[in-house]
Each structure stands twice: as C-alpha cells, then as structure tokens.
Amino acid sequence: MIQRLALAVTFAIGAGAAHADQCTLTGVDLRGDWGQAHFNIEVADDADEHAKGLMFRESLSASGGMLFIYDTPRHARFWMKNTLIPLDMLFIDSAGQVTRIAENTRPLDETPIDGGADVLMILEINGGMAKSLGISLGTQLRHPGFDSSIALWPCEPE
What we know:
This protein is of the alpha+beta class. The protein contains three helices and seven strands; from the N terminus they run αββαββββαβ. 34% of the residues are buried. The model is unreliable at 1-8 and 10-19 (pLDDT under 50).
C-alpha cells in the first residue's frame, strides 16, 4: 500500500514540475536531502476546521493532505479522536522547517501527540508516506501562508 502511495506522490512530483515555481493555497511543496514532493491540500485555518481536521474520513488520496495553519506559533498537541485512517503529522515552524514528525499515528487514539513548541503549521499526510519518501527533520515546506521575509523556501512573487 505504501509503495503505491509513494508512486502516486512521485507522479505528483513529476506532474508538479511544470508549476514548481508557483505557490497556491491548495498545494504545498516539500524539499530536503531526500528530494522534493508536492501535496494537494485542504487548509484548516480556523478553530472549527482545526477541531474537525480529517475526522470521519475513510481515505485520503496519495498526494493529498491537510495543512493546519495558526495565526501565531504555539505549542501544538493533536490526537486521533474520530480519525479513521493512519496519518503522518509534520510539525512546522515559522520558517517552514519540519521540527517533528509523528509517523503512522493510530486511528481513533485519544493519546495526545506532542508536536512541540513554536509550531505554526501541521501537515497531515497518509501514514507511512514520510518514511516512504524519506521526509525527515529539517525538511523545508513552501506555502503562501509563510511570511516570505523569514521563510527558508519562500514563494516567488508573481
């Protein structure tokens, strides 16, 4: 299953190469020593969307994800209550750097998952995808939600 997901994301990487310099609200790009990937995302940027997240979903496309965006950095804790699919959670600081990864979180588990301090965004993708692609701490994420003056990988101005 994970190999099929990795192949689908690899396809998304190739398909996304034509618009690699464009940032959109519905996509994120990741890069690191392991390479690059693009995910098509839903954005959760208010309290109601944060609370619901990916609850009750029975599947997530291989190149899909959800990006949780906060107004200011904070200590982030998540859980898997009512979440039916395993997820990888990437905790990201204000500069767009992955600072923690919770891999293959357990569906329906109410145990808090600690993302640490100074988290501005969390990217949720299919469980096992981070390991399959080689996503690691220090990976950089690009999205228009970052302040371009401090982002490690800022969006290019139009």
